[in-house]
Please model this.
Amino acid sequence: MPKRLLSQPRRKPSGRHAVPGDKSISHRALLIAAAAGGETVIENFLDGSDCRATANALRALGVGIEFVDTTRVRVSGDGKFTAPKDVLDLGNSGTGLRLLAGLLAGRDVTATLTGDASLRSRPMRRVAQPLSRMGASIETSPRGTAPLVVRGKSVLRGIDYAMPVASAQVKSAILLAGLAAKEAVIVHEPAVTRDHTERMLAAFGAKVHREANLVRLERGATLATPERIDVPGDLSSAAFLFAAAAMNPGASVTVAGVGVNPTRAGFLDLLARMGAKVSLENPREISGEPLADVTVTGGTLAGIEISGAEVALAIDEIPVLLAVAAVAEGETVVRGAGELRVKESDRLAAMADGLSKLGIRNALREDGIGVFGGEPQPGTIDSRGDHRIAMSFAILGQRARGPVDILDCDTIETSFPGFAALMQQAGLDITEFQA
Ligand code: S3P
Model:
Protein backbone atom coordinates (compact mmCIF):
# COMPACT_ATOMS: atom_id res chain seq x y z
CA MET A 1 0.00 0.00 0.00
CA PRO A 2 1.52 3.39 -0.93
CA LYS A 3 2.59 5.79 1.78
CA ARG A 4 1.03 9.18 2.34
CA LEU A 5 2.08 12.20 4.34
CA LEU A 6 -0.10 14.33 6.56
CA SER A 7 1.21 17.84 7.16
CA GLN A 8 -0.60 19.66 9.96
CA PRO A 9 0.03 23.37 10.16
CA ARG A 10 1.24 25.67 12.93
CA ARG A 11 4.66 24.38 13.96
CA LYS A 12 7.93 26.23 13.42
CA PRO A 13 11.17 24.36 12.85
CA SER A 14 14.14 24.75 15.17
CA GLY A 15 17.37 23.11 16.25
CA ARG A 16 20.57 21.78 14.78
CA HIS A 17 20.32 18.72 12.55
CA ALA A 18 22.16 16.51 10.09
CA VAL A 19 20.67 15.19 6.87
CA PRO A 20 21.59 11.97 5.00
CA GLY A 21 24.48 11.91 2.53
CA ASP A 22 24.32 13.61 -0.83
CA LYS A 23 22.61 11.53 -3.52
CA SER A 24 24.59 12.84 -6.49
CA ILE A 25 27.93 12.40 -4.74
CA SER A 26 27.05 8.94 -3.38
CA HIS A 27 26.33 7.75 -6.94
CA ARG A 28 29.58 9.19 -8.26
CA ALA A 29 31.61 7.73 -5.40
CA LEU A 30 30.30 4.24 -6.20
CA LEU A 31 30.76 4.49 -9.95
CA ILE A 32 34.19 6.10 -9.96
CA ALA A 33 35.55 3.84 -7.20
CA ALA A 34 34.28 0.84 -9.20
CA ALA A 35 35.96 2.14 -12.35
CA ALA A 36 39.23 2.84 -10.56
CA GLY A 37 39.55 -0.58 -8.90
CA GLY A 38 41.36 -1.25 -5.62
CA GLU A 39 39.49 -0.80 -2.39
CA THR A 40 37.76 2.28 -1.07
CA VAL A 41 35.31 2.95 1.74
CA ILE A 42 32.55 5.48 1.20
CA GLU A 43 31.46 7.20 4.41
CA ASN A 44 28.06 8.84 4.91
CA PHE A 45 26.77 7.11 1.79
CA LEU A 46 23.10 7.82 1.11
CA ASP A 47 21.14 4.75 2.13
CA GLY A 48 18.30 5.47 -0.30
CA SER A 49 16.80 3.25 -2.96
CA ASP A 50 18.34 5.21 -5.89
CA CYS A 51 21.90 4.68 -4.69
CA ARG A 52 21.16 1.09 -3.69
CA ALA A 53 19.97 0.43 -7.25
CA THR A 54 23.32 1.71 -8.58
CA ALA A 55 25.16 -0.43 -6.02
CA ASN A 56 23.19 -3.51 -7.12
CA ALA A 57 23.87 -2.80 -10.79
CA LEU A 58 27.61 -2.58 -10.07
CA ARG A 59 27.44 -5.86 -8.16
CA ALA A 60 25.81 -7.48 -11.17
CA LEU A 61 28.76 -6.18 -13.21
CA GLY A 62 31.18 -8.02 -10.94
CA VAL A 63 32.20 -5.17 -8.63
CA GLY A 64 32.62 -5.95 -4.92
CA ILE A 65 30.09 -3.89 -2.96
CA GLU A 66 29.82 -4.52 0.75
CA PHE A 67 27.59 -2.53 3.09
CA VAL A 68 29.68 -2.40 6.28
CA ASP A 69 26.66 -0.66 7.75
CA THR A 70 23.85 1.27 6.12
CA THR A 71 25.90 4.38 5.38
CA ARG A 72 29.37 2.85 4.98
CA VAL A 73 30.12 0.98 1.77
CA ARG A 74 33.27 -0.83 0.76
CA VAL A 75 33.85 -0.91 -3.01
CA SER A 76 36.48 -3.32 -4.30
CA GLY A 77 37.60 -4.85 -7.55
CA ASP A 78 40.11 -4.68 -10.35
CA GLY A 79 38.39 -1.84 -12.18
CA LYS A 80 36.98 -4.23 -14.78
CA PHE A 81 33.35 -5.11 -15.38
CA THR A 82 31.95 -8.49 -16.39
CA ALA A 83 28.86 -8.93 -18.58
CA PRO A 84 25.74 -8.96 -16.37
CA LYS A 85 23.50 -12.05 -16.54
CA ASP A 86 20.36 -9.97 -16.37
CA VAL A 87 18.91 -6.57 -17.20
CA LEU A 88 20.22 -3.84 -14.85
CA ASP A 89 17.32 -2.14 -13.07
CA LEU A 90 18.15 1.39 -11.92
CA GLY A 91 14.72 1.89 -10.32
CA ASN A 92 13.75 5.56 -10.19
CA SER A 93 17.24 6.91 -10.72
CA GLY A 94 18.11 9.03 -13.75
CA THR A 95 21.57 9.67 -12.31
CA GLY A 96 22.23 5.94 -11.87
CA LEU A 97 21.08 5.05 -15.35
CA ARG A 98 22.68 7.88 -17.32
CA LEU A 99 26.02 7.83 -15.49
CA LEU A 100 26.27 4.04 -15.67
CA ALA A 101 25.52 4.20 -19.42
CA GLY A 102 28.46 6.59 -19.76
CA LEU A 103 30.80 4.40 -17.77
CA LEU A 104 29.82 1.22 -19.64
CA ALA A 105 30.18 2.96 -23.01
CA GLY A 106 33.92 2.79 -22.45
CA ARG A 107 34.01 -0.86 -21.35
CA ASP A 108 34.04 -4.02 -23.36
CA VAL A 109 30.63 -5.19 -22.09
CA THR A 110 27.05 -5.29 -23.30
CA ALA A 111 24.32 -4.46 -20.82
CA THR A 112 20.65 -3.49 -20.85
CA LEU A 113 19.73 -0.68 -18.47
CA THR A 114 16.17 -0.02 -17.42
CA GLY A 115 14.12 1.37 -14.54
CA ASP A 116 10.63 1.99 -13.19
CA ALA A 117 7.78 3.53 -15.19
CA SER A 118 8.92 7.08 -14.36
CA LEU A 119 12.52 6.43 -15.44
CA ARG A 120 11.36 4.63 -18.58
CA SER A 121 9.49 7.76 -19.62
CA ARG A 122 12.52 10.07 -19.41
CA PRO A 123 14.62 11.20 -22.39
CA MET A 124 17.74 9.13 -23.08
CA ARG A 125 18.80 10.28 -26.56
CA ARG A 126 20.58 13.12 -24.79
CA VAL A 127 23.13 10.53 -23.57
CA ALA A 128 22.83 8.04 -26.44
CA GLN A 129 23.83 10.62 -29.05
CA PRO A 130 27.12 11.88 -27.62
CA LEU A 131 28.14 8.39 -26.43
CA SER A 132 27.49 7.01 -29.93
CA ARG A 133 29.59 9.78 -31.40
CA MET A 134 32.41 8.63 -29.16
CA GLY A 135 32.15 5.15 -30.72
CA ALA A 136 29.89 3.17 -28.35
CA SER A 137 26.64 1.64 -29.52
CA ILE A 138 23.68 2.80 -27.46
CA GLU A 139 20.17 1.77 -28.42
CA THR A 140 17.11 3.39 -26.93
CA SER A 141 13.46 2.44 -27.36
CA PRO A 142 11.83 3.98 -30.47
CA ARG A 143 10.59 6.79 -28.18
CA GLY A 144 14.16 7.57 -27.17
CA THR A 145 13.71 6.16 -23.66
CA ALA A 146 15.03 3.24 -21.57
CA PRO A 147 15.54 0.30 -21.83
CA LEU A 148 18.94 1.26 -23.11
CA VAL A 149 21.17 -1.37 -24.68
CA VAL A 150 24.79 -0.31 -24.21
CA ARG A 151 27.47 -2.06 -26.24
CA GLY A 152 30.65 -0.53 -24.98
CA LYS A 153 34.14 -0.39 -26.45
CA SER A 154 37.29 -0.31 -24.43
CA VAL A 155 38.71 2.49 -26.58
CA LEU A 156 36.52 5.44 -27.57
CA ARG A 157 37.08 8.61 -29.57
CA GLY A 158 37.37 11.99 -27.88
CA ILE A 159 34.59 14.50 -28.39
CA ASP A 160 34.10 18.27 -28.37
CA TYR A 161 30.45 18.51 -27.50
CA ALA A 162 28.08 21.44 -27.01
CA MET A 163 25.25 20.07 -24.88
CA PRO A 164 21.82 21.16 -26.11
CA VAL A 165 20.46 21.06 -22.52
CA ALA A 166 22.08 22.01 -19.23
CA SER A 167 22.38 18.58 -17.61
CA ALA A 168 24.98 17.37 -15.14
CA GLN A 169 23.90 13.81 -15.87
CA VAL A 170 24.68 14.15 -19.58
CA LYS A 171 27.96 15.94 -18.87
CA SER A 172 28.91 13.23 -16.37
CA ALA A 173 28.03 10.38 -18.74
CA ILE A 174 30.33 11.91 -21.36
CA LEU A 175 33.16 12.43 -18.85
CA LEU A 176 32.89 8.87 -17.53
CA ALA A 177 32.98 7.53 -21.09
CA GLY A 178 35.93 9.87 -21.61
CA LEU A 179 38.00 7.75 -19.22
CA ALA A 180 38.31 5.35 -22.18
CA ALA A 181 38.83 7.99 -24.86
CA LYS A 182 42.05 8.17 -26.83
CA GLU A 183 41.69 11.94 -27.21
CA ALA A 184 40.58 14.68 -24.84
CA VAL A 185 36.90 15.11 -24.05
CA ILE A 186 35.49 18.63 -24.05
CA VAL A 187 31.97 19.53 -22.97
CA HIS A 188 30.35 22.96 -23.31
CA GLU A 189 27.37 23.58 -21.06
CA PRO A 190 24.57 26.02 -21.94
CA ALA A 191 24.51 26.86 -18.20
CA VAL A 192 26.83 25.73 -15.43
CA THR A 193 25.58 22.55 -13.72
CA ARG A 194 26.76 20.64 -10.67
CA ASP A 195 30.41 19.67 -11.01
CA HIS A 196 30.56 16.70 -8.62
CA THR A 197 31.87 14.35 -11.32
CA GLU A 198 34.70 16.72 -12.21
CA ARG A 199 35.65 17.06 -8.54
CA MET A 200 35.44 13.32 -7.85
CA LEU A 201 37.50 12.47 -10.95
CA ALA A 202 40.10 15.01 -9.83
CA ALA A 203 40.08 13.44 -6.33
CA PHE A 204 40.94 10.14 -8.06
CA GLY A 205 43.84 11.81 -9.88
CA ALA A 206 42.34 12.50 -13.32
CA LYS A 207 43.25 15.74 -15.08
CA VAL A 208 40.04 17.75 -15.39
CA HIS A 209 39.98 21.45 -16.20
CA ARG A 210 36.98 23.68 -15.68
CA GLU A 211 36.51 27.16 -16.98
CA ALA A 212 33.10 28.82 -16.85
CA ASN A 213 30.85 26.69 -19.07
CA LEU A 214 33.59 24.40 -20.39
CA VAL A 215 34.97 21.15 -18.99
CA ARG A 216 37.95 19.28 -20.43
CA LEU A 217 39.13 15.82 -19.45
CA GLU A 218 42.62 15.00 -20.69
CA ARG A 219 43.09 11.70 -22.48
CA GLY A 220 44.56 8.66 -20.83
CA ALA A 221 43.25 9.36 -17.33
CA THR A 222 44.46 6.79 -14.84
CA LEU A 223 42.54 6.68 -11.61
CA ALA A 224 44.12 6.08 -8.21
CA THR A 225 41.63 5.00 -5.58
CA PRO A 226 41.66 6.95 -2.32
CA GLU A 227 41.18 4.76 0.77
CA ARG A 228 38.18 6.72 1.83
CA ILE A 229 35.61 9.09 0.36
CA ASP A 230 33.43 11.22 2.63
CA VAL A 231 30.05 12.32 1.36
CA PRO A 232 28.66 15.67 2.61
CA GLY A 233 25.06 16.02 3.80
CA ASP A 234 22.64 16.51 0.92
CA LEU A 235 21.74 20.15 0.38
CA SER A 236 18.72 19.02 -1.64
CA SER A 237 17.39 17.31 1.52
CA ALA A 238 18.43 20.12 3.88
CA ALA A 239 16.50 22.44 1.54
CA PHE A 240 13.20 21.24 3.03
CA LEU A 241 14.21 22.28 6.55
CA PHE A 242 15.63 25.56 5.24
CA ALA A 243 12.39 26.27 3.38
CA ALA A 244 10.34 25.55 6.50
CA ALA A 245 12.47 28.04 8.47
CA ALA A 246 12.48 30.67 5.72
CA MET A 247 8.66 30.68 5.66
CA ASN A 248 8.38 31.47 9.38
CA PRO A 249 9.68 34.89 10.45
CA GLY A 250 12.03 34.37 13.40
CA ALA A 251 12.27 30.57 13.04
CA SER A 252 15.79 29.29 12.65
CA VAL A 253 17.26 25.94 11.66
CA THR A 254 20.86 24.76 11.33
CA VAL A 255 21.99 21.80 9.24
CA ALA A 256 25.54 20.76 10.07
CA GLY A 257 27.95 19.32 7.52
CA VAL A 258 25.91 20.07 4.45
CA GLY A 259 27.41 20.37 0.96
CA VAL A 260 27.66 23.96 -0.28
CA ASN A 261 29.33 23.40 -3.65
CA PRO A 262 28.59 26.67 -5.51
CA THR A 263 27.34 24.78 -8.58
CA ARG A 264 24.71 23.26 -6.36
CA ALA A 265 23.88 25.82 -3.68
CA GLY A 266 21.84 28.28 -5.74
CA PHE A 267 18.83 27.63 -3.53
CA LEU A 268 20.51 29.37 -0.58
CA ASP A 269 21.09 32.49 -2.69
CA LEU A 270 17.49 32.46 -3.86
CA LEU A 271 16.15 32.14 -0.30
CA ALA A 272 18.35 35.05 0.78
CA ARG A 273 17.07 37.12 -2.14
CA MET A 274 13.51 36.43 -1.04
CA GLY A 275 14.28 37.80 2.42
CA ALA A 276 15.48 34.88 4.56
CA LYS A 277 18.76 35.13 6.44
CA VAL A 278 21.34 32.54 5.41
CA SER A 279 24.63 32.07 7.22
CA LEU A 280 27.47 29.61 6.71
CA GLU A 281 29.77 28.59 9.52
CA ASN A 282 32.75 26.32 9.84
CA PRO A 283 33.42 26.03 6.10
CA ARG A 284 35.63 23.06 5.24
CA GLU A 285 36.31 20.59 2.46
CA ILE A 286 35.99 16.79 2.30
CA SER A 287 36.94 14.61 -0.65
CA GLY A 288 37.13 17.70 -2.86
CA GLU A 289 33.69 19.05 -1.92
CA PRO A 290 33.01 22.17 0.17
CA LEU A 291 30.68 21.85 3.14
CA ALA A 292 29.58 24.03 6.04
CA ASP A 293 27.09 24.31 8.87
CA VAL A 294 24.27 26.32 7.37
CA THR A 295 21.66 28.29 9.30
CA VAL A 296 18.52 29.72 7.74
CA THR A 297 16.35 32.19 9.65
CA GLY A 298 12.89 33.13 8.44
CA GLY A 299 11.94 36.65 7.46
CA THR A 300 9.34 38.61 5.56
CA LEU A 301 9.60 37.13 2.09
CA ALA A 302 9.00 38.78 -1.27
CA GLY A 303 8.66 37.20 -4.70
CA ILE A 304 11.71 37.18 -7.01
CA GLU A 305 12.58 36.52 -10.67
CA ILE A 306 14.68 33.43 -11.34
CA SER A 307 16.62 33.00 -14.59
CA GLY A 308 17.55 29.80 -16.44
CA ALA A 309 21.16 30.02 -15.23
CA GLU A 310 19.90 30.22 -11.64
CA VAL A 311 17.53 27.31 -12.21
CA ALA A 312 20.49 25.14 -13.27
CA LEU A 313 22.20 25.83 -9.92
CA ALA A 314 19.08 24.90 -7.94
CA ILE A 315 17.42 22.45 -10.31
CA ASP A 316 16.10 20.02 -7.69
CA GLU A 317 15.12 22.76 -5.24
CA ILE A 318 12.78 24.67 -7.56
CA PRO A 319 9.70 22.72 -6.34
CA VAL A 320 10.33 23.60 -2.69
CA LEU A 321 11.24 27.15 -3.70
CA LEU A 322 7.80 27.41 -5.33
CA ALA A 323 6.32 26.23 -2.02
CA VAL A 324 8.15 29.12 -0.34
CA ALA A 325 6.92 31.47 -3.09
CA ALA A 326 3.36 30.45 -2.21
CA VAL A 327 3.62 32.35 1.08
CA ALA A 328 5.82 35.25 -0.12
CA GLU A 329 4.54 38.71 -0.90
CA GLY A 330 3.85 39.17 -4.63
CA GLU A 331 4.85 37.07 -7.61
CA THR A 332 7.81 34.73 -8.06
CA VAL A 333 8.64 34.06 -11.70
CA VAL A 334 10.79 31.12 -12.82
CA ARG A 335 12.09 31.11 -16.40
CA GLY A 336 14.24 28.72 -18.42
CA ALA A 337 13.05 25.75 -16.38
CA GLY A 338 11.82 23.43 -19.16
CA GLU A 339 14.09 20.67 -17.81
CA LEU A 340 11.78 20.39 -14.80
CA ARG A 341 9.22 18.82 -17.11
CA VAL A 342 11.41 15.74 -17.64
CA LYS A 343 12.36 14.94 -14.05
CA GLU A 344 10.80 12.11 -11.98
CA SER A 345 7.52 13.82 -12.94
CA ASP A 346 6.63 16.95 -14.90
CA ARG A 347 7.52 19.09 -11.91
CA LEU A 348 6.19 22.36 -13.35
CA ALA A 349 2.77 20.80 -13.95
CA ALA A 350 2.80 18.91 -10.63
CA MET A 351 3.57 22.11 -8.69
CA ALA A 352 1.02 24.17 -10.65
CA ASP A 353 -1.73 21.59 -10.00
CA GLY A 354 -0.90 21.19 -6.34
CA LEU A 355 -0.63 24.92 -5.69
CA SER A 356 -3.99 25.47 -7.40
CA LYS A 357 -5.51 22.75 -5.19
CA LEU A 358 -4.37 24.71 -2.14
CA GLY A 359 -5.80 27.95 -3.56
CA ILE A 360 -2.48 29.48 -4.63
CA ARG A 361 -2.78 31.36 -7.90
CA ASN A 362 -0.14 30.50 -10.47
CA ALA A 363 0.56 30.79 -14.18
CA LEU A 364 2.13 27.76 -15.83
CA ARG A 365 4.25 28.45 -18.91
CA GLU A 366 6.03 26.12 -21.31
CA ASP A 367 9.39 26.60 -19.63
CA GLY A 368 8.49 28.15 -16.32
CA ILE A 369 5.87 29.25 -13.85
CA GLY A 370 4.70 32.32 -11.98
CA VAL A 371 3.44 31.88 -8.42
CA PHE A 372 1.46 34.55 -6.56
CA GLY A 373 1.93 34.37 -2.81
CA GLY A 374 -1.21 33.95 -0.74
CA GLU A 375 -2.75 31.90 2.04
CA PRO A 376 -2.55 28.17 1.32
CA GLN A 377 -5.75 26.30 2.14
CA PRO A 378 -6.02 22.69 3.35
CA GLY A 379 -6.31 20.03 0.68
CA THR A 380 -5.15 16.77 -0.85
CA ILE A 381 -2.19 16.65 -3.22
CA ASP A 382 -1.21 14.01 -5.74
CA SER A 383 2.59 13.87 -5.61
CA ARG A 384 2.62 11.97 -8.94
CA GLY A 385 4.98 9.54 -7.26
CA ASP A 386 7.69 12.23 -7.21
CA HIS A 387 9.69 12.48 -3.97
CA ARG A 388 10.51 16.17 -4.27
CA ILE A 389 6.91 17.14 -5.04
CA ALA A 390 5.70 15.15 -2.02
CA MET A 391 8.24 16.74 0.36
CA SER A 392 7.67 20.26 -1.03
CA PHE A 393 3.94 20.10 -0.28
CA ALA A 394 4.61 18.63 3.16
CA ILE A 395 6.62 21.77 3.92
CA LEU A 396 4.00 24.09 2.46
CA GLY A 397 1.39 22.31 4.60
CA GLN A 398 3.14 23.73 7.67
CA ARG A 399 1.95 27.18 6.61
CA ALA A 400 -1.52 26.18 5.35
CA ARG A 401 -4.80 27.00 7.09
CA GLY A 402 -5.53 23.32 7.69
CA PRO A 403 -4.06 19.88 7.04
CA VAL A 404 -2.47 19.01 3.73
CA ASP A 405 -2.65 15.36 2.79
CA ILE A 406 -0.12 14.13 0.24
CA LEU A 407 -0.65 10.90 -1.69
CA ASP A 408 1.77 8.47 -3.31
CA CYS A 409 4.85 9.18 -1.20
CA ASP A 410 6.81 5.92 -1.45
CA THR A 411 9.58 7.45 -3.55
CA ILE A 412 10.71 9.70 -0.69
CA GLU A 413 12.91 6.68 0.13
CA THR A 414 14.87 7.29 -3.07
CA SER A 415 16.51 10.45 -1.77
CA PHE A 416 15.56 11.14 1.85
CA PRO A 417 15.05 8.07 4.04
CA GLY A 418 13.67 9.16 7.41
CA PHE A 419 12.25 12.43 6.05
CA ALA A 420 9.13 12.54 8.28
CA ALA A 421 11.09 11.53 11.41
CA LEU A 422 13.68 14.25 10.83
CA MET A 423 11.00 16.88 10.19
CA GLN A 424 9.38 15.87 13.50
CA GLN A 425 12.73 16.10 15.25
CA ALA A 426 12.93 19.67 13.94
CA GLY A 427 9.48 20.40 15.45
CA LEU A 428 7.33 20.09 12.31
CA ASP A 429 4.06 18.20 12.33
CA ILE A 430 4.57 15.90 9.35
CA THR A 431 3.50 12.28 9.72
CA GLU A 432 3.86 9.34 7.42
CA PHE A 433 1.02 6.82 7.02
CA GLN A 434 0.46 3.67 5.11
CA ALA A 435 -2.50 4.92 3.00
C1 S3P B 1 21.82 15.14 -11.07
C2 S3P B 1 21.60 16.08 -12.04
C3 S3P B 1 20.31 16.73 -12.26
C4 S3P B 1 19.40 16.57 -11.05
C5 S3P B 1 19.38 15.16 -10.54
C6 S3P B 1 20.77 14.73 -10.12
C7 S3P B 1 23.15 14.52 -10.97
O1 S3P B 1 19.68 16.12 -13.38
O2 S3P B 1 18.09 16.96 -11.37
O3 S3P B 1 18.52 15.01 -9.45
O4 S3P B 1 23.41 13.82 -9.97
O5 S3P B 1 23.94 14.71 -11.89
P1 S3P B 1 19.98 16.63 -14.90
O6 S3P B 1 21.39 16.44 -15.14
O7 S3P B 1 19.14 15.73 -15.76
O8 S3P B 1 19.50 18.04 -14.92
